């Protein structure tokens, strides 16, 4: 009987311990401020210091107002500030903006409709680049950089998808890589070119990569490789240093190339992982300048 009681006590203890760990994890998720918000938060804090204001809803509204009227920031940048600071106030100050504040945010947003601010609303985004020129740049890189760049070009991966890749996610015999699409919360297989497979194999052999190493990983100043996950920001900087372009230049370049080669939307989406064909068409597929130039050759 005593033994049975001990078993019940042990299980009860394990259950309570697991429940506590669960609650702690949920708390951490709910109270996490994404790294991408930190820059906007720091700029707001600096503004409060310079204007001798506390971190209050009023100074928040004031900051949003001058962001439009004095700083003339792009609308998409302004919207990002709203999201970042709303999260900051909720977590750090326990403040949920009421209807009055929400209404004033909406009114401030309307400033972008005023005459003279048209260019602040225009969305330019990243553009595709000449794929032959890009491949020429990539071909001159060292083994590691070359493999990473070719994978990013073949897969059109987002930064978060690149930094999360592990060596075990590659199936080189089948010429594909399994990518976790965070937006869709699912795994998706993407095809790889034969030359990319060769570059990956050379990278694995030269660096002695193991299945659980992160594919991008980190290389220290002494040249030693560490298969640890790096941040999306670090990856963007790395790619720009190697090629002069961003991950979204790579992403749009593949889409533009496949489209110009005759691929339909479904085929392109199968490779890129786009869930919505409408989004793919609206934001990624535009008539290229080269095509326009082709039909503007006036006859003499």
Question: What are its keywords?
Answer:
mainly alpha, 15 helices, 5 strands, globular, two-stranded antiparallel ribbon, 2 domains, hpI Integrase, Chain A
**Structural class given helices, strands, pairing?**
mainly alpha
Main pleated sheet: 3 strands, antiparallel
Q: Give the CATH class of the largest domain.
A: Mainly Alpha
How many domain modules? 2
CATH superfamily of the largest domain: Intergrase catalytic core
Flag low-confidence runs: none
CATH architect. name of the largest domain: Orthogonal Bundle
Mean of the pLDDT scores? 87
Strand content: 5-15%
Instruction: Give the SSE order as H and E letters.
Output: HHHHHHHHHEEEHEEHHHHH
Question: How would you portray this structure in words?
Answer:
This protein has 2 domains: 35-121; 131-289, Intergrase catalytic core (hpI Integrase, Chain A, Orthogonal Bundle). The chain contains 15 helices and 5 strands. Helix content is 59%, strand content 6%. The protein is globular. With 300 residues, the protein is mainly alpha-helical. It has helices at residues 2-30, 38-50, 57-69, 75-92, 99-109, 118-121, 131-139, 143-155, 159-164, 194-207, 232-243, 247-260, 265-272, 277-283, 289-294; strands at 170-171, 176-181, 186-191, 218-219, 225-226. It has a 3-stranded antiparallel sheet. The protein has a two-stranded antiparallel ribbon with strand order 4-5.
Chain-wise SSE layout:
Blueprint: H1 2-30, H2 38-50, H3 57-69, H4 75-92, H5 99-109, H6 118-121, H7 131-139, H8 143-155, H9 159-164, E1 170-171, E2 176-181, E3 186-191, H10 194-207, E4 218-219, E5 225-226, H11 232-243, H12 247-260, H13 265-272, H14 277-283, H15 289-294
Antiparallel strand pairs: 1-2, 2-3, 4-5
Helix pairs in contact: 2-4, 3-4, 3-5, 8-10, 8-12
């Amino acid at each position: 009987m005593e033994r049975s009681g001990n078993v019940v006590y042990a299980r009860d203890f394990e259950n309570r311990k697991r429940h506590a760990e669960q609650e702690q994890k949920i708390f951490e998720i709910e109270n996490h401020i994404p790294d991408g918000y930190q820059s906007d938060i720091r700029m707001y804090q600096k503004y409060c210091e310079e204007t001798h204001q506390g971190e209050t809803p009023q100074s928040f509204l004031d900051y949003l107002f001058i962001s439009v009227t004095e700083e003339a920031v792009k609308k998409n940048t302004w919207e990002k500030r709203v999201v970042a600071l709303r999260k900051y106030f909720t977590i750090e100050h326990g403040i949920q903006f009421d209807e009055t504040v929400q209404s004033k945010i909406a009114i401030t947003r309307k400033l972008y409709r005023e005459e003279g601010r048209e260019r602040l609303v225009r969305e330019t985004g990243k553009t595709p680049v000449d794929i032959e020129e890009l491949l020429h740049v990539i071909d001159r890189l060292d083994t590691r950089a070359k493999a990473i760049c070719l994978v990013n070009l073949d897969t059109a991966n987002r930064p978060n998808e690149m930094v999360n890749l592990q060596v075990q996610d590659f199936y080189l015999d089948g010429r594909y890589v399994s990518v976790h699409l965070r937006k869709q919360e699912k795994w998706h297989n993407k095809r790889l070119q034969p030359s990319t497979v060769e570059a990956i194999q050379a990278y694995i052999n030269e660096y002695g990569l193991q299945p659980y190493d992160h594919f991008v990983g980190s290389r220290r100043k002494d040249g030693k490789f560490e298969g640890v996950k790096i941040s999306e920001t670090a990856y963007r900087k790395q790619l720009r240093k190697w090629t002069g372009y961003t991950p979204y230049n790579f992403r749009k370049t593949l889409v533009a190339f496949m489209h110009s080669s005759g691929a339909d939307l479904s085929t392109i989406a199968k490779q890129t992982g786009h869930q919505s064909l409408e989004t793919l068409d609206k934001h990624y597929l535009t008539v290229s300048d080269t095509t326009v130039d082709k039909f503007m050759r006036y006859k003499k």
